[in-house]
Design goal:
Layout lengths: L2 H8 L1 H12 L4 H18 L5 H35 L2 H10 L5 H19 L4 H12 L4 H11 L7 H14 L3 H12 L2 H14 L9 H21 L5 H20 L13 H4 L1 H12 L5 H6 L3 E10 L5 E9 L4 H15 L4 H14 L1 H20 L1 H13 L3 H16 L2 H19 L3 H15 L4 H10 L6 H28 L5
Antiparallel strand pairs: 1-2
Length: about 500
């Protein structure tokens, strides 16, 4: 069987997943599980893998999907749910809405800053639903609010839910997480400026709207980008979005107090802001304390287990053993849950109430857990069977050395289909790595472009659009929202593709 034939067969799981979700509107958990079955059948019949080999791959992938990926999702949404229950989120929202009466500043603060922060700590729709609702309360048109929230929910998606997309990508490709983090921030740095300016233009419907907030936007986005680069280099993926957006929010508040004093609402915010944000503050402190920045502490709490998976005997007669390493304490999901419990007590909750909320969170996320475990198992089978390798070889034959120009588009397609940057990285991370090694491009650079493209593609994800329209009672307007956001997305992806392609041929060529 020739390479193109294998490429076309290997693309079947991706095509099936796209058809089920986009054409037939099948729920993501059912679509991913069904595609996993199709992938397993292909591995057995076309790639001639033994039944036990495929079964072991599915089991290893599902466990890898639950720990640490699902643990982070569970922890993040558990934290968010407790803050809703204790009304702490209301305190934070009230404070943000009182900073300025200038609609341009409000959009930057709420859609870009607070939305980015929510993406960093929770993800999964919160960064679209909550900012959209706040903007409508402040008097924004619902459809414009949706577009603004979708445009803003882009760059920070790369490091959403405490960096899990990048952490997962590093784990799957065995590349350095700090290097990947730094390259992703560098690739998206220009969009830290383009998108805020774009938000201002969309808000007022004119490029002239940038006048009057140009310096505020430039100064605050510069600070945000510098902080993100520093965190990526020194800490890793977990805090890039969180600390970067906090720096952006603080910068805007300080700027408004210094230069736009007349616009600030002096009405005191009800509740103690420090207590309201205590879960997030403790979360950040724990992640920093246990990160590589402090190797002594990091090593002390890095105890875990290694679960061996026997794939049988290889062609050379040697047993194929792949280990799944599980860190029990020093993992983002566990740290988030610990921070949530401490913060919840400070906010007035108790262990009994939090235990009930945790149970409700697990039930709320049951379909998400099924989706994530299925898609990681699917990717594991595609990788171990050789499908990813054949996809890579086919793309090289079709595109040659020009592949880097479309590498971000591959990531964006992954997010469009699955609604998740993490899932896009699971599907295509190994593919990007294989292509990079074969065409002579720095692997970290090209693999990072998958996350960058996936982040920009988030604005056209049907799941994100559905969250935005349902949160604003605009059901039925999904196609109108999609057609508008698609135009912006394509332009931004072209810019990113040019950046990745040109630098792949020059600075990052081997």
């Amino acid at each position: 069987m020739n390479q193109i034939s294998l490429f076309l067969l290997a693309i079947i799981p991706i095509a099936v997943l796209m058809l089920l979700i986009i054409k037939f509107k099948v729920a993501a958990n059912i679509a991913t599980f069904s595609t996993l079955i199709v992938t397993a059948v292909l591995a057995l019949t076309i790639w001639h893998k033994p039944v036990d080999y495929v079964a072991v791959g599915i089991l290893q992938g599902a466990l890898k999907g639950f720990w640490p990926i699902c643990m982070v999702i569970i922890g993040a949404i558990f934290c968010y749910n407790i803050m809703l229950e204790t009304k702490s989120m209301d305190v934070i929202k009230n404070m943000l809405s009182k900073v300025s009466s200038d609609k341009r500043v409000q959009v930057l603060l709420i859609a870009w800053g607070f939305g980015g922060f929510l993406e960093g700590v929770a993800g999964f729709g919160t960064a679209v639903a909550i900012p959209t609702g706040i903007l409508i309360i402040l008097g924004f048109n619902p459809m414009k609010s949706i577009l603004l929230a979708l445009l803003a929910n882009t760059v920070t998606v790369a490091f959403g839910a405490v960096g899990i997309p990048v952490i997962t990508l590093a784990d799957l490709t065995e590349l350095n997480v700090q290097t990947l983090s730094f390259y992703i921030v560098a690739q998206l740095a220009i969009f830290n400026f383009i998108i805020p300016y774009l938000l201002i233009v969309v808000t007022e419907g004119s490029f002239k709207a940038i006048k009057g907030v140009f310096w505020l936007t430039t100064v605050c986005t510069t600070i945000c980008t510098a902080v993100q680069l520093f965190i990526a280099m020194k800490v890793g993926a977990e805090l890039v979005s969180i600390v970067g957006t906090v720096a952006f929010i603080v910068s805007i508040i300080v700027y408004c107090k210094l230069f736009k004093k007349e616009e600030a609402d002096k009405t005191p915010t009800e509740g103690n802001l420090f207590v309201a944000a205590s879960s997030y503050i403790i979360m950040v402190l724990l992640i920093i304390a246990f990160c590589p920045l402090f190797p002594g502490i990091n090593k002390a709490v890095a105890f875990g287990s290694a679960i061996p998976f026997n794939y049988g005997v290889g062609a050379d007669g040697v047993e194929i053993i792949k280990e799944l390493k599980i860190t029990w304490l020093n993992t983002p999901g566990v740290l988030i849950i610990i921070a949530t419990l401490i913060g919840g007590l400070l906010q007035g909750s108790n262990f009994s109430a939090m235990f009930k909320i945790f149970g409700k969170t697990l039930f709320q996320l049951r379909k998400t857990i099924m989706t994530v475990t299925s898609i990681v198992a699917l990717a594991q089978v595609m990788d171990s069977s050789g499908m990813i390798l054949d996809l890579s070889n086919g793309l090289i034959l079709l595109t040659g050395g020009f592949y880097p120009f479309i590498a971000p588009l591959v990531g964006a397609v992954g997010t469009f289909v699955t609604g998740s940057d993490t899932s896009s990285n699971i599907l295509f991370g190994k593919l990007q790595l294989n292509v990079a090694n074969k065409i002579g491009v720095n692997p970290e650079w090209l693999v990072a472009s998958n996350t960058s493209g996936a982040a920009l593609g988030k604005m056209i994800s049907p799941q994100s659009i559905a969250v935005a329209t349902s949160a604003t009672n605009q059901e039925g307007q999904e196609s109108a929202v999609m057609s508008t956001s698609l135009k912006y997305c394509l332009v931004l992806l072209i810019v990113l593709g040019l950046i990745i392609g040109i630098l792949s041929m020059t600075l990052f060529a081997k």
